[in-house]
UniProtKB/TrEMBL annotation:
GO terms for biological process: D-alanine transmembrane transport; L-alanine transport; L-isoleucine import across plasma membrane; L-valine import across plasma membrane. PANTHER family: AMINO ACID ABC TRANSPORTER ATP-BINDING PROTEIN, CONSERVED COMPONENT OF ABC TRANSPORTER FOR NATURAL AMINO ACIDS-RELATED. Pfam families: ABC_tran (PF00005), BCA_ABC_TP_C (PF12399). Keywords: ATP-binding, Nucleotide-binding, Transport. It comes from the Bacteria. Signal peptide: none annotated. CDD domains: ABC_Mj1267_LivG_branched (cd03219). The keyword Transport applies. One of its GO terms (molecular function) is L-valine transmembrane transporter activity. The lineage of its organism: Bacteria, Pseudomonadati, Thermodesulfobacteriota, Desulfomonilia, Desulfomonilales. This is Amino acid/amide ABC transporter ATP-binding protein 1, HAAT family. It comes from Desulfomonile tiedjei (strain ATCC 49306 / DSM 6799 / DCB-1).
Amino acid sequence: MLKGSGITKRFGGLVALSDVDFEVNRGEIVGLIGPNGSGKTTLFNVISGFYKPDGGEVSLLGERISGKPPHRIAAMGIGRTFQIVRPLMDLTLVENVAIAVLYGRMGISESTEAKDKAYEILRFTGLAAKAYSLPGQLVLEDRKRLEVARALGSRPEIILLDEVFAGLNRKEILGAIELTFRIRDEYRVTIFMIEHVMKAIMESCSRIMALHHGVKIADGKPEEVANHPEVIRAYLGA
Ligand code: ADP
């Protein structure tokens, strides 16, 4: 579904991504790990069009997307959440999601219909009871769920999740893992996620890729990658 080959991204003299190849197949939940500064967010920014790669290309369902602007890439079916959640603070939850629906790929242009759809997505993400609250009233877990709901509003083929488990307690993490599976199974959305919470990665991902200093050092089953000597060395800072 999503494929990158030879992705290189430099910031001045710093090589944030170096010749990275990756593939995410339809229906997979793929994790992206690596110590801070290893290039994970840069890779998501390249995929979603916020950064242009200096080398290599990304394609979605066989069509080249690198070089296109973010709104075109979103319209082609790539949704994403941000580490720093940023809903529209003056709008209710249902309005926040309805905007994503109106600008998304569902072909809905009428606001009542968009709100109905938004409410359905809020129910799916466990936020129906707070549909008419403002984002500022939400606890962290619900802010993360709202971010996911907004990404789902555009009806993506694949969703890039950026640390949606960060800061959650054990019980909330279990709920978020369950939501991840339901996104794949009920909404049929493929998932590529940056994550530091090991439990979440190990339990929800079918495959994990690890980056270190902008280089892909491992790609495989969760247990294989977690026990990979280079991955262990990267995390120990060696
Ligand atoms: P991660 O998400 O794995 O923590 P990042 O992709 O954010 O890593 O960063 C990779 C490297 O690229 C870091 O050294 C970071 O400082 C650098 N970097 C990221 N974005 C920019 C930018 N816009 N300008 C300059 N350097 C950047």
